[in-house]
Specification:
Layout (H helix, E strand, L loop, with lengths): L8 H8 L3 H13 L18 H18 L9 H21 L3 H13 L3 H14 L2 H7 L5 H12 L3 H7 L6 H14 L3 H19 L1
């Protein structure tokens, strides 16, 4: 049987740095995998984990992805490629079942977009409002990838207006929250959002006059 060392030094190093609880998440997901890695990488792993596990799994997934794209001189055998696919699918399954951070959602969305796995993109996008805090959505709206930014902005437009208002006092997130309010007013016809945007514009006009 293959061991983690067969995937190379970096994957081995990251794996050995995982806490036992995080390793258990991956191993449980592996046991739940079908015989072949799922092509759409949306396998479910119903489990609970904390922010540190999320960070550790994100590092492991990045190491596995890097290993999969190494040069021909270090290319994996067919068996190793098959097993690596299972490891990748297990990490993605666990992260998709419980990720909460902008960083990890950005990582998962970029992977799905690169693979043209649009079903996976839809699954992630549909879970943004339920799983990602508004401040994290604002962080995702500043992502380097324009497609990821667009998905985050779409999610913010669906955020309750009252929640967006609370972000207006944050110097980091205020501009993004206001943009979402303007879209709610213009595209969704929200009277509440329109009233707030008009009030902001009126206040700014008064400041300019002073």
């Amino acid at each position: 049987m293959m061991t983690i060392e067969d995937f190379g030094a970096r994957v081995t190093s990251v794996w050995e740095g995982l806490r036992p609880a995080t390793r258990d998440l991956v191993e449980r997901a592996l046991r739940a995998m079908p015989a072949s890695p799922p092509t759409n990488q949306t396998a479910r792993a119903v489990t609970v984990y904390d922010a540190r596990s999320e960070w550790e799994l994100s590092l492991l997934l990045a190491a596995l992805d890097e290993r999969a794209t190494e040069t021909a001189a270090h290319r994996l055998s067919d068996e190793q490629t098959h097993e690596l696919g299972h490891m990748v699918a297990a990490c993605v399954a666990v992260l998709q079942s419980g990720a909460r951070s902008a960083e990890v959602f950005g990582q998962l969305l970029e992977r799905a977009l690169r693979a043209r796995n649009y079903a996976g993109v839809d699954v992630l996008a549909d879970s943004l409002n339920a799983r990602v805090a508004p401040t994290e959505l604002c962080e995702l709206a500043r992502h380097a990838n324009p497609a990821v930014r667009a998905l985050a902005h779409e999610a913010l437009m669906q955020t309750p207006t009252a929640t967006l208002v609370t972000l207006l006092g944050d110097p980091v997130d205020a501009d993004i929250a206001r943009d979402a309010l303007e879209h709610q007013a213009d595209e969704y016809g929200s009277e509440e959002a329109r009233w707030i945007v008009n009030a902001l514009e009126h206040a700014e006009s008064c400041d300019d006059d002073m």
